Amino acid sequence: MFRILTGALLLIAASLTWACQEATDPEDLADPVDLTAPITVNARDGGDRTYTIQRGDDPAFDEVRQYDHKVTFDVTSALTNAAVDEDEWDLELPLTITSASVKVEQASGGIATPPTGSEVVHQEYTSQSSGSVLPEVGSTVTQTFTVWYWLPNRGTEALITVSYTFSDDDGATASDSVDVLVSP
Q: Which end of the chain is less enclosed by CB atoms within 10 A, N or C?
């Protein structure tokens, strides 16, 4: 009986030790970089910017359309203490912005609503940045995005998600995103 009880206690102690060694979920950590952007922006006319819908192998059947809408906004990345905190991310400085991408989704009431038919959202964007390196805690980089888009529902309201990836010189990475709502 003593052997069984001792074995059970050892098994419980070992399982508790394994549970304590489980990796921390990045979702539970503070953000290493704070992203700030306007919550809502207003769209303007898309101007003369166009996109092409390919209708097969023959370019003669392609359709050229103008984008309906255009928005411009800034996203600022600010390096936080969590980036270098040993209990949080423990990244080596400087951090470099290795990618920034934009996704446009049609929306209703601030909620993304995927197209129901065969049409897709068409988008294009350009960006200008004040830099790509965050050398120390508190440093910032601001990136200005200009986004042209056309929505299948022919509406104006859209949810734009800007996603970033950051890396240090040792190859460790962190990613984050920020949403910008285009008002109807």
A: N
Name the token pair of 16. 């508790």
Confirm whether 20 is domain-assigned: no
Quick: pLDDT tens for 104-121. Answer: 999 999 999 999 888 899
Residue 57 lies in a domain: yes
Give pLDDT tens digits for 144-161. 999 999 999 999 999 999
pLDDT class for 23, splitting at 50, 70, 90? very low
Tokens of 53: 């819908």
* CATH number of the domain encompassing residue 54: 2.60.40
Query: Considering the domain boundaries, does residue 2 fall inside one?
Result: no
Question: 10: exposed, middle or buried (C-beta count within 10 Å: 0-12, 13-18, 19+)?
Answer: exposed
Q: Which residue has the tokens 């600022």?
A: 76
Residue 153: other Cβ atoms inside 10 A: 16
- Collapsing DSSP to helix, strand or coil, 9 comes out as helix
- Specify the number of domains making up the chain: 1
Contact status, residue 100 vs residue 106, Cβ threshold 8 Å: no
The label of the residue with tokens 């103008």 reads: 66
Q: How far apart are CA 116 and CA 151, in angstroms?
A: 12
Question: Whole-angstrom Cα distance, residue 8 to residue 28?
Answer: 32
6 within domain boundaries: no
Confirm if 95 and 168 have CB atoms less than 8 A apart.
yes
**Residue 97 in tokens:** 């912005």
